[in-house]
Amino acid sequence: MGNVVFDQVEVLDYCGPFEVFSVMRSSNQESPNKLFQPVLISKTLNPITTIGGMKVLPDCTYQQVLDEQIPIHVLLIPGGIGSRQERYHTETTFFVQQMVQRDSLRVLASVCTGILILAQARVLPNQQKVATHYQALDYVQTEYPNLQVHRDVHWTHEHITLSSSLSLSTTCP
Q1: Is residue 154 one of the residues assigned to a domain?
Q2: What is the Cα–Cα distance from 48 to 127, expressed in whole angstroms?
Q3: Which end of the chain has fewer CB within 10 Å, C or N?
């Protein structure tokens, strides 16, 4: 499970899913094996600073994931005020575009305003149904009129893309 982090990321948006995926185990009670090994991925290995000031050390860079073919089956793009700037970083959008092309990627998910990064990377089909933070509904619709921003739901699920307005644990087939 790959969890993208960037400056001014919302802590709950990446920590909640990180925690859920880090403790998932096989339903076989005999097996202590974890189903996922979450990794924090960023442009560099330099510490990032969250909205609340928490310092976070990424485990690997975008380039390392791409060059070393690190297996990522679930890619999560969290939100936060930093997503508004991060969507314009070509390293980030290129990384997302490359990951979507991988056969190993099964789920591409965003939380809250992380949808801005997916939209800017142009990896969502035209008229994709999306969810985001309630305070960003109009902003996302104005910035990306080709998306269907749903105002009355907390999450949407289409193809391999899951977008959420909350940090939720979700099982995807």
Answers
A1: yes
A2: 33
A3: C
